[in-house]
Amino acid sequence: MRLRFIGTRLLRGAVTLWFAVTVTFFLVRLLPGDPVLAVADPNMTEELRAKLLADFGLDQPLPVQYGEYLLQLVQGNLGMSFRQSIPVTTVLMERLPWTLILTLSAMIATVVVGIPLGVLAATKAKGWVDRLIQVAGITAQSLFVPSVGVFLLYVFGVLLGWFPIGGAVDPDATGLAASLSMLHHLVLPCLSLVFIQLGGYVLTMRATLIEALGEDYVTLAKAKGVRPASVVWKHAVRNALLPTTTIAGLQLGALVGGAVLTETIYAYPGIGRAIFEAVGQLDFPVLQGAFVLLAAAVVAANLITDVAYGFLDPRVRTS
Amino acid sequence: MRRTLIAATVAALAVAVAACAPSTPGSGTGTTSNSGAADRLTIGTTADVVNYNPLVGNSRTDSWITNLMYPKLMQMDEAGKRIPYLATEWAYGKGGKTATLKLRDDMKWSDGKPVTAADVVYTIETVDKEKFGVVAGLITAFDKAKAVSPTEIEFTLTRPDGTFLDNIGFWMPIVPKHVFEKAPSVQKFANDSGWVSAGPYKLTKVERGQRYLMERVESFTPKPSVKEIVFRVFPDVNTEVLALRNGEVDVIGNVLPPATAATLKSDAKIKLQQIPSLGWAHLQYNTKRKPLDDVRVRQALAHAVDNEAIRKIALQGFAKSSNGSVLTPSQPGYADSTSKEYGFDPAKAKALLAEAGVTSPTFSMVYDQADPNIAKWAPMVRDSAKQAGITIKLQGLERNTYLAKTLKRDFDIYAGSWAVMDNPPANLGLAFKSGGFINYAQVEDPQLDKLIDKGQRALTPEAAKAPIQEAARIIHDKVYDNVLYVETFNIAHSAKWTNFKPMPSELLSIINPLSLAQVKPAG
Amino acid sequence: MTLTAAEPTPRRRTWEAFRRNPLGTGSAAVLILLILVAVCAPLIAPFPEGYGTDTSQPPSGAHWFGTDDIGQDVFAQVVWGTRVSIMVGVSASILAIVIGLLVGVAAAYFRRLDTPLGVLIDLSLSLPVLPLMILVAALAGPSVRTLVVVIALFSWPEVARVVRSQALAIVPLPYVSAARVVGGSATWIIRKHLFPGVIPVVGVSVVLTTSRAVLAEAGLSFLGLGDPNSWSWGAILHKAQMSGSLASAWWTTLFPSFAILLLVVATTLLSVAYNDARNHRTR
Hints:
heterotrimer; A: mainly alpha; MetI-like fold; 13 helices; B: alpha+beta; Dipeptide-binding Protein, domain 1; Dipeptide-binding Protein, domain 3; 2 domains; 7-stranded mixed beta sheet; 5-stranded mixed beta sheet; 17 helices; 20 strands; disordered N terminus
C-alpha cells in the first residue's frame, strides 16, 4: 500500500516536472525577445552567425529543439550558457547551495516561531493576544521585501553595524569562522523571508487548532480530566499540524518568489538572483535550467510533505 | 529548550552546507585577511563577469577585470590623448596605407613567456577573421599585419585611415597567442579558468555572485602598490553605498547617480572623484520615418527639449553643455566654439511644425529603462514637448528589447547615450555615415559621407579637424543628432585611499590599470 | 449545509458577526479610504509630472511626503500610485477570478474534465510564479496591460483550486441532481446553482488575489518591469532605487512601502474577519 502510494506520488512529481519544463521552454521561446542577439554579435558575417546559431541549435525548428532539450535533460545535461560559454549545470550548482541554505533556514525559523504563535493565538481566541498575533503575522506577511531589506540593511548594517552589507560569507574565513560568518550573513535575508511567510503559518495553525479544539475527542479528553495545556499540545496540536504541513508545501512557491527579491536586495548569490541576471542577458539555457531546478525543488518538497502527511495521518495511506 | 535545539540544528545545517558549498574557499590564497587596508583594495560592482574572454566580454565588470589582466597597446590620459602602454611608439607610413608599432620588451605572460609582436598580430588577425566585438567594426581598413621583429609590427591597410592606430591602441586587448590559438573558435572560448595574463594584476579566484580576487604581479613595472584587488558584487548602487559607508568596500566602481553623489558630498569619510565622459547623451530622430524626414520637424523637436533643465535637475548639475555639437568639450582638439544649442522654445517649435504642415504629432520614444539618468529625463522630454503640442509616448524598455529595437531601427525617437566616443573621425563614421553600424537616425547624406571620409583619411588630428568640424555642423543643422549633455561622472571612494589616476569614461574611471598600480593608503 | 441554506438570515448573521470584529470593520474602512483616494486622485493632488527646483527635500508643510530627486511631490506620486496599483490589482484579480471560476466550475461539474483540469491546476500551482512573471514581463515589454495579464496568468490556479473544491461539494446536492434529471442545460444549472454556491468563497478570493496582485505589481515594477508612463507604488520605489536614494532619501521609500503594507494588511485582515464571521454562522 505504502509503496503504491509513493509510486503514484513519484509519477505525479515527474509529470509536474515535465509540465514546468514544457511551459518554461515555450514561454521563453515564444516571447518577442531575440535569443540570437544574446549569442551573435551584430558585426558578424552571415556565415559565422549561422554557424554559431547552429552550434547552439537555435537554427532548428522549435519542436526539434524541444525534443533535443528533453533528451538532454533526461541525461542530466542542461546545455551551455549562451553568455558565459560554460555548462548551465556549473552555473547553477554554484548557486544552489546558497538558495538551499537561505530557504531552508527561513523555513525552519518560520516553523519554530510560527507554530507556537499560532497555538497561543488559538488558545486565546478572540482575546487581545489573539488579535495582536494575527495583526502582527499579517503585517509581517504583507511587508514588501525590498523595502524591508533596505530598512534592515540601513539600521543593522550601517547605523548599528551589527551585520554585514550583502554577500553570503566572508570568503577569507576558514573552518568554524567561515560557518559563523555564514550565519552572520544569513541573519538579515533569513529574517526577511521569515517575515513574509510567518502569517501563513500562524493563521493556518490558529484556524485549524480552533477547529480541533471544538472536536469531540478534545472535549472527551477534557472530560476525562486531562490538563488543559496537555490537551492542547498532545491532542489538538498534532491534528492541527497536518494542514500546516500542507501550507509548508504550498508556501514553497511564495518562498521561492520571495527568495528572488531577497537575494537581489542582499546580494545573496543564489538561484533567484541568477534568474534575474539571466533574464537581463537573455540567457535561455540558464533560465530554463533554473526553472527546472526550482520545479524539481517544489516537487521534492511536495513529495516530502505528502509522505510526512502519510506518517502523521494514517488515513491518507490507506485511502 | 526546544527552540534552542532547533536553532542549534539550523546552525549545524548551515555549517554542514558550508562545508560542501563549492564556492566556499578552503585554505585561502595564503593572504592574511583584514591585515590592514594597504594590502587590499575592495571595489564594488553591480554585476558579475559575464565573459572572461577580453575579446568578447563587454559588460563593465568584464572590462574592469580584463583590463587589469590583458594589456592594451595604448592607454589614455585625462584629456583623451593616447599614451604608451604595451606599445612605446607608433606612426603611419607615407600615404597612410601602412602603420608601424614598437612594443616594450619587458612584459611577460603569467606563464613566463614574453609578450611579443606575434601576440599582437595573432589578436588582430583573429578579430578580423572572426569579426566579433567592438574592434571588428573599427578596423575595416585593416589588410594584414606582420611581426617584423619580436617588438615591431607593420600593418598594411586597404586605404589611408588616420583612426586605425588610435582604435586598436585603445580598444584591442592583446591576448596570448599560445593559449588562445588552441581554441577552435576564439569567439566561443570561455577563458574561464587557468588564466594566462600580463597586466598589473592576475585573477586568482572567482566566487560568482560574490567576489573576484586579483593578486599583484610582482614583476610588473611599475610595481603595483596594493597587494590584492577584490571586486565585490552588489545588487545595486544603494547597497554599494551602504557598504562604502560602513567600510566594507573602498571604491564603488559604477558611476554614482547624480542624486546620490549630491548626498555623499558632505560625508567626510567618502571622497568623490569627478571624471569627464567621453560620450554624450542625446536624442536621435529616425529620418526614415514621416514626418521626421522633414528637417523642420526635427528642428521643432530640438526646440521642444529643455536641455538646461535636464542638466540642472535630472543630472543635478553634473553635466556640461556640448553646445549642441557632437564634438564635445572632452575633445578639446576638435570642439567647435561657434556651435549653439537649439534652446527650449515651444513657440518656435510650434511655428516650425506649422511651417512643415504637421499638427499635433505623436511619436514614440525608446530608451533603456535600466539607465538611471535617461529613465529620469525621458519623462522631462515628454512633458516639455507637450508644451509645443507634441505628444511623446515613452517606451522604457528592458535592455534586450531596447537593443533589438535600436538594431532594427524600430522607433521614432531614440533616447540614449554613447559611452565612449574617443576619436571623432572614427565615431562619426560609425554613427552618421550611410549604413554606419550605429547610425540610428539612418542618415544618408552624401555630403556628410564625403566629409567624414576626408576626416578619416587625414593622418593627424590637425588635418582631420576642418572636415570633421564641417561634418559636425551639418549634423547639428540637419538635427541628425540632438546632443543634450556630456555627463560629469562621480566616482566615490573611501577617504582612506589616495593617489588614484582618473581617466575619462566609466570603463577606465579610477580603476584603470595605471590608477590601481599607483593607488595607496592615505596618510 | 442544506439546513443552513434554508435558514432565513445567514447573510445577516455573518454581517452581525463581522460588524462586531473591530479588525474587520477597521480594515474595511481603510480599504474604502484607499479606493476613495484612487478614485478621487485628481481632486487630491495634481498628476506628478515635469520637475521642480526643490529636489530631494524631506517632508514639510509644502510637500507632505517630501520631494524626489527631480523635485516632484512624493505625496502626489503616492496618491496617483494608489490609482494604478489598485487598478492593476483589481483588473488582474478580476481576470484571474474569471479564469479560475470557469476552470474550477467546469472541473467540478463535468466529470470527464475533472481529472485533467485538476491536474492542470495542481501543476500550475507548483510553478515558481514570481520568476516566471519576471521573465514574461521582461520579454513582453512594460505596460500596465502586460502587468495585468501576466499577474492574472499566474494567479488563476489558486482561485480555481478554491472554487473547484467548493463546487465539488455542491454538485452532488439533491437540487443539482434534480435539475439534471429534469433536463436543465449545463449552462443553466451552472448559472443558477453552482455560481451562487461558490460566490461567497470567491468573494474572499477577490480580496486576497487583489492584494497578492498589488504585491506582485510592486515587485515587478521595483525590478524595473513596470510601465514608465504611469505611477504605481512599485514604480516610485523603483525610481528611488535607481537614483540610489533608497536609504538616504527615506521618504521616497517609506511612504509607498507603507501604502503597500496598508492595502495588503487591510485586505488580508478583512478576509480573515469575513471567514471568522462565516464560521460563526456554521457553528
